[in-house]
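Quick question about two entries, pasted in order.
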Amino acid sequence: MSGLRSFVARRLLLGVLQIVAVVLLVFALTEALPGDAAVALAGDQPDPARVEAIRTAMELDRPAWERLVDWAAGLLHGDFGTSLTSGRPVGQYLADGLGPTLLLAALTVALLVPAGLGLSVLAARYEGRAVDRVISSVTLAVYAVPEFALGVLLVTVFALRLGWLPPTAVGHGTDLLAQPGVLVLPVLVLLARPVCSLVRLVRAGMIDALASPYVAQALRYGVPGVRARFLHALPHALVPAVQQLARTIDWLLCGVVVVETLFVIPGLGTVLLGAVGERDIPVVQGLAVVFGVVTVVLNLGADLVAHRLAPRAGVAA
């Protein structure tokens, strides 16, 4: 118990330091962006007086360290700043885009876990046989296809040729559940590569675990094969899979720009893409910080779960 508490304390401290580093890095990168944000916002023929007024409104005339302190203090109180182009709070952009992205992520994970674990256990159970070869070949082939190419292929076949599903979410707003068919193709694209990666990871771990002495000992004591696979071998095979699943959820929650753009899903990825195009620095900064914090928190949770599954492994992301 003391070892677990020490591990948790170290990881929490490391997580806090990582979040501080994320805030500093995001601010430094946005400060280093080429060009002048005030000139970009002033229009095609910027008037010097207008540029100076915009610079003052954006507080670009203040030292960078002062703006960093004020921005970090606002983050501690949940204030992400105000959009330069619309005047809306950045938090509203996050709230508007979070719903669709969270829905896509939840549906993808809900299908990813049973599909990935089921296929990997099946492949490991029949290692080297036809079932294992088919699963390994198909997952490798699907993983090699980029999301954009797979999305275009699915849209061409199921939306344009067969007419079974809508090609995009245009006209459906943020209430995607009102038209479930809109979600099918994006979820399939989001699910394709993660499930292939998860299957290959867990399959390799299951094969090693099934060949380990403790599983052989359990079988010698008369433990049924199904119980030995799922209660003895699977937990040890899940250690790398838990971290892979955390990275997958992070990738989904942070908004998959390619998928959301292809299917016109109004999620966080689309919001980020629009903010970059409009050079809306506060929105970009707010989204980047949220993405970074989500990454740190998910990896911290994955480390704790992995340590609980296999304490002797000393797993750390």
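Here is the second entry:
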Amino acid sequence: MSLRSRLSRRARITLLGVTAGSFAAAIIVVPALADSDTSEQATAAARQAEYGPEPEADSPLVTQTGGLSTMATATLSPDTMINRARVWLTANNGGPVPYSMERNWKDGYRQDCSGFVSMALGLGKPGLNTVGLADSRNGVTKRLSGTSQLKKGDLLIDYSTSDGDFRHVVIFEKWANTAHSSYWAYEQRGTYGTTHRKLTYGIGNDNYDPFRPVKLGGGSGGGGGQVPSPGVSWPVLQNGSKGADVRSAQQLLTAHGYTVSADGVFGPNTRSAVIKFQKARSLAADGVIGPNTWSKLTKVVQSGSSGQAVKAAQTQLNVYGYGLVVDGAFGARTKSAVVAFQKNHKLQVDGVVGPQTWRSLLGTR
């Protein structure tokens, strides 16, 4: 029998009992797929290779019972949790923290997906593993009945071993669309390190289940059907980000005289424009659009306004399903949409897109 025929259609995983710093080394063998294999299976194999098996619960790389300090005594706001997660996007000299199941970052947390989430939750260092985050006995999370309950700061966890010894966890930030078919999330993943991107884990038929940190407060930045607070966080955009938020940022940059294509892709040209904008306003010129840059980038628009800043507001309103023509003219339909949005989000209802309305337009889904 040939080697190819002896291998199953899925990637074979051989775990060698070779100790290296008290953890097992893993070798992943991905054979050529048989003719009947689908691209979906190939994608699954690649995804497995991207994450890899995680440290076991008794590993010195995993926080042991009694080491879950912060969550046992303090309530963490969703905004604080998300802001902690964002730190790793640029913590490595302006770049993301690299992925590793074997190393701890400078802050003491393990550099894999569950170490990243443990850091965001302020758990004991170096962090729980994925199974530990999902285990109710640890008192860190509780399982939700469905993804419709997801709010900012919740987790989607694949803690099953039915597809091999590969597990993963991501932090839910906000819905990416009104249909709730995808969402924005923070994750720590192989090859890329800390990432902020749109995901569909848990939406379809997979092993991901929704969980809520038990000490996560609900007073700041909700989602999943609840009305968000006006104190929601600005999104963080950087090289590689995509979507409506990027398009709005590009339109706002153009409104300030830094012409870039409003294609919704944060590439080199957009980053260059951001750096120029930041330098002109004495901001940290890191090419990342965070809270300080957003506060300078947005412009107040209202009835009678026109131009790229109005297009940016219309782009954001359409994310919430208002169906506006993005023409840059702030007319009656745009004002009506703004008023409706402000009512739904408990903002001052004046039909003017000012700082608080901009923040809610960009910071909630």
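Reply: Confidence is low (pLDDT under 50) at residues 1-50, 67-73, 218-231. Residues 276 and 285 are 8 Å apart (CA to CA). Hope that helps.
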